[in-house]
Every structure is written in structure tokens, then in C-alpha cells.
Amino acid sequence: MKLQFTKMHGAGNDFIVIDAIHQEIDLTPAQWQRLADRRFGIGADQILVVEKPRLPGCDFRYRIYNNDGGEVEQCGNGARAFVKFVSEKGLSDKTSIRVETMAGIIAPRLEIDGSITVDMGAPVLEPKLVPFDASGLDGIAQGNDTVWPLDLALPGQTSPVLVSVVSMGNPHAVQVVDDVDAQDLDATGPRIEHHPRFPRRVNAGYMQIVDRQHVKLRVFERGAGETLACGTGACAAAVAGILRGLLDSPVRISARGGELSIAWQGPGHPVLMTGPAVTVFEGTIEL
């Protein structure tokens, strides 16, 4: 089977994008994993699949596979790559589209300057819906947020990590740190991702406040490890910081692969994410 693909990235978060409208795609988790492997495949953080919509009023269906072969609900940087892909491939001549995902409908929009804004919907803040098991824990009020203590069972750990829990269609645990570059994500990221209080695992965000409208962010993504940028992680970090009273909208998010802008007016309002999407190369791979 020969599979045509496009390699793209959004602020360094890289993707394989596949047109499943004009190609028949039926791959196993092992095949998705092989495609994303940086030594034996094409290499990517996630694989994005463009399909015909199933819901009325939508232009496309958007499916996402992490590089471990598992399908996930949402990918914000991927949503920007998605709209650029369908525009460049002539699959749509609209500047704004409605896209069906596992987490609901999103609305990416191509801006005049070439950047892309995605309406990511309203964040989910109720712990049990993230989902997060808060039973038996004493949450700590901070601003309009509640931060939760997580014991990571690390050698030498004397106090729990305090996290905000937010879902942007996928679950996030966001902590504030003094120096994001000093964090050992290889040590703590897997402990947070697989913490038993997150039944569907979680993306671990590490946020350093630079000023009230600027943060530095690293994210250890569920099923992918640390990525150079994470769109939903940027949204979750901005939401957590605004709720805690530490940030004001819009927030500039500096990730290791580039910058995103996140705007949010508060609970019940959608999160708007703006940033770049870049096509790197195209090719064909035989499976």
C-alpha cells in the first residue's frame, strides 16, 4: 500500500497529515506508530487524518493519532495545520471551516497575515469531567481556581506538585514553576501523565510567568512525550493562569518551537488560539 502524506509543523510541533478523502485508510496502531517513528518512518509528534464529515454543518472530520499509535481527542497546533492543509490542497476555498473532532466541533480560521486562529471552545473546569479524581484531596483556592496536590512519589520529593486541571478536549495538569528550563520533564512528566488520579492519563504543563501577558511553557504530552509546542497545552496554561489571577488576556505563550497567542474572556467563553502552520515537504511511503 502506497500512502501519500504531507509533513507540517505548528511552532515546532510536527505532524504527518493524510488525506483520507481521496485515499482509503485503514491502519493498525502499529502502522500509525511506524509512520511516526523518527528512525523507521517519517517521524512526527502526531498524525492528522482528514476525512469527510459525519455531522451536518461540518466541513471535515479530523482524527489524531499520537506517535505511540493511540487515537486522541484534540490537538490545537494540529488544527492550524489542518486548515492550512485543506486550503493548500484545494479541499476547501473557505477561510473559516467547521471541523468535527472526538472532542466536539472546532472552527479554525485562516487570517489575512497567514496565521491561523482556532476557536477551541470553552475549557472544561469541573475536575470529574477533565477527568480528574479529586476524592480525598484538599484543594487550595488560588484566585478563581482550585489547585490540587499531586504526590509524584519521586525520591527526595518533600512536597506535592500543585496543578490546575483543565480539559481543552483533552486533559491537562498545569503547574507554575520558577524556571521552566530547569525542569526535568523526563523524570516528572511520565509520573504526572500516568498518575492514577487521571483515569485517561494527562498532558503535563510547566508554566513560567514572565509578566502578566507572557509565559514560557513546556508540555510533556500524553502518548508523545515532550513536544516543541502544544496548542491545547498553551490554551490550558493561559486558562489556568487567568483563573489564578496571574495573567491577563491575551497571553503570549513562548514554547521551545515558537510562539502562540491565546485569548480568553473567562468561564463559559471559548478559547481563541492564534499561531503559525508550515508545510515542510510531501511524499509517498509504502506500508
Automatic annotation (TrEMBL):
It catalyses: (2S,6S)-2,6-diaminopimelate = meso-2,6-diaminopimelate. Keywords: Amino-acid biosynthesis, Cytoplasm, Isomerase, Lysine biosynthesis. The record marks 172, 221 as: Could be important to modulate the pK values of the two catalytic cysteine residues. Its main location: cytoplasm. The keyword Isomerase applies. It is found in: Cytoplasm. Pathway: Amino-acid biosynthesis; L-lysine biosynthesis via DAP pathway; DL-2,6-diaminopimelate from LL-2,6-diaminopimelate: step 1/1. InterPro entries: DAP_epimerase_AS, DAP_epimerase_DapF. Gene3D superfamilies: Diaminopimelate Epimerase, Chain A, domain 1 (3.10.310.10). The active site is at 75 (proton donor), 75, 230 (proton acceptor). Homodimer. Catalyzes the stereoinversion of LL-2,6-diaminopimelate (L,L-DAP) to meso-diaminopimelate (meso-DAP), a precursor of L-lysine and an essential component of the bacterial peptidoglycan. PANTHER family: DIAMINOPIMELATE EPIMERASE (PTHR31689:SF0), DIAMINOPIMELATE EPIMERASE, CHLOROPLASTIC (PTHR31689). Belongs to the diaminopimelate epimerase family. This is Diaminopimelate epimerase. It comes from Janthinobacterium kumbetense. The lineage of its organism: Bacteria, Pseudomonadati, Pseudomonadota, Betaproteobacteria, Burkholderiales. The gene is dapF.
